[in-house]
Specification:
InterPro entries: NO2/SO3_Rdtase_4Fe4S_sf (IPR045854). It is elongated and about 45 Å long. The protein is 55% helix and 0% strand. The protein is mainly alpha-helical and 55 residues long. It has a domain of 31 residues. The protein starts with 17 loop residues before the first helix and ends with a helix.
Length: 55
């Protein structure tokens, strides 16, 4: 039996997380373009979640 990186039964070979990496990169790119100087990522995300829910 041959195990590859997509086989979750082998903990020594994690699955590929490229989709997750792409999403995190996109969040950071938008944060860098939109955040105030010195604003932390978590604060920026929280600010955005409040404005999108209207509260």
């Amino acid at each position: 039996m041959t195990l590859d990186a997509g086989d979750n039964s082998n903990p020594a070979m994690p699955p590929e997380y490229m989709g997750t990496v792409d999403v995190v990169k996109r969040i950071i790119d938008v944060w860098r373009a939109d955040a105030r100087p010195g604003e932390r990522t978590g604060d920026w995300l929280h600010k955005g979640s409040r404005s999108s829910t209207g509260g």
